[in-house]
Amino acid sequence: MLSLTRKSDAQPVAAPLWHTNFRNFERLPDTKVVRTTFFINTAAIAVTLGLLLWLGYREYHIYNLGEQIAQAQKEIDANSKQNAEAIRLSESFAAEESKLNEAAAFANARISPSEFVMLLGETLPKEISIDAIDAHLNGPTVGVYTMRGIVAGTPDQASGTASNYVQMLHDNARLKSIFDSITLERLNRDAGSGFMSFEISLKVKSEKNGKK
Amino acid sequence: MNTADVITLVKKQPIGFGCGLLCIIIAVILYLRSDKISESQTEYEAKSAERSQVLANVRNSEHLKDQLAELQKLSKEMESRLIRAGQLAINLQYFYKLEAENEVKLMDPRQGALSRGNKGPYMGIPYSVTVQGSYKHVLSFLQRLESGAHFCRFNSVTFAKVVGSNDSPGDAGASANMNLALNIELLGTQ
User: Is the CB of residue B158 less than 8 Å from the CB of residue A134?
Assistant: First the structure.
């Protein structure tokens, strides 16, 4: 029977080796232009050197910090005696200072009663007579001053005079710096004297308002 | 791959294997000492701050001894102005002395009860005092009390004309008879 396939389509005939290949490729020398070992060694040495440098840098940094710590400790030790003395003196100073501050704060008042009385005396109009001044104080920034007195003139004139007097107290720079409010609390006819009697209260500025 | 193969491989790449071994050792060291820098840094910062504090203390205390001596002198002077709560007669003598110096009439000065719960080393010792006299003398008494030998704090002040004295508006009032009622505290100790 004739074959239908062409000759060219047929499997090439494997030519039998003419002798046995005895070469051991693993043991043969590397005949490349640059040997693989060179790359392996270069990479290994580079990585190792990099790690060594990193380790060296870190160790040097640690050593350096250790040196600085030792230097700082040396300075601390050298000054420890003076430091202890300075702390002792400072504590004594703070204790003495607190005593003086307590004494200063004790008698501290925005306005002394005598200054208040004298201020009123200096600004008092001739139509007004003050009968009494009351001060209720609770610390330098809590307190109310009250003054009571009489005003000369007809009720109409007296009310005007009293109102002007309150305004004058308001306008007084010293009083304005100390008192929050100055209020005419009462103005009525005094049965005994026939004059108009009044009551004015002055409230000391609180700490918060006083610092404005 | 058996041991012989490994040995052959090591013999073939001795530098590579040596470096690899060294890398492993370095990596172990780096791992074991990984916290050392941050620990040393923290310790250094603490020591540095301590050193700065110590040096600042020493530097700032250069004149502290003299300043403290000055302050102690002031403190001693201040303490000489304090009263002792137990020395009633001596304390009242202060008011009688002011009475004599200012030509006013002192009415029954009284030492009040001491307040409890005082935090500081000193305390306010309360007194109630009433004086009578002319406006000028009473005001002088008040001023002497404010700037006197002892530290004085005013709790309440009532300054009033004595009933029946000259009280018409327009009068200067310097000669009017005045009554001054005070609730005060003098700074002192037990």
Answer: yes
| Tokens, residue B117 | 């719960």
Two tokens, residue A26: 């693993």
Q: Which residues contact A27 (CB under 8 A, 6 or more apart)?
A: none
CB distance from B162 to chain A under 8 Å?
no
* Three-class secondary structure of residue A42 per DSSP: helix
Beta-carbon contacts of residue A109 (< 8 Å; ≥ 6 apart): A137, A140, B153, B154
Report the distance separating Cα B101 and Cα B140, nearest Å.
9
SS3 B190: coil
Burial class (CB in 10 A: 0-12, 13-18, 19+), A79: middle
Residues of B (11-50) whose Cβ lies below 8 Å from A: 12-13, 15-16, 18-20, 22-23, 26-27, 29-30, 33, 36-37, 40-41, 43-44, 47-48, 50
Closest by CA position to B88, among listed B123, B126, B116, B115: B126
Q: What is the DSSP secondary structure assignment for residue A180, as one 8-state letter? A: E
Query: What is the distance between the terminal CA atoms of chain A, rounded to a whole angstrom?
Result: 126
Contact (Cβ atoms closer than 8 angstroms) between residue B144 and residue B102: yes
* Distance (Å, whole) CA A91 – CA A72: 25
A114: tokens are 């005598």
Residues 55-84 of A with CB under 8 A from B: 55, 58-59, 61-62, 65-66, 68-69, 72-73, 75-76, 79-80, 82-83
**CA–CA distance, B166 with B134 (Å, rounded to integer):** 11
Distance CA B46, CA A73 (A): 11
The C-alpha atoms of residue B11 and residue A36 are separated, in whole angstroms, by 15
* A134 DSSP β-pair partners: A146, B158
In tens digits, chain A (212 residues) has pLDDT values of 444 555 555 555 566 777 777 778 777 777 777 778 888 899 999 999 999 999 999 999 999 999 999 999 999 999 999 999 999 999 999 999 988 888 888 878 888 899 999 988 888 888 898 989 999 987 666 789 999 999 988 888 888 999 999 999 999 999 989 898 899 998 888 777 778 899 999 998 876 554 44
A:162-191 residues touching chain B, CB 8 A cutoff: none
Q: What ipTM was estimated for this complex? A: 0.72
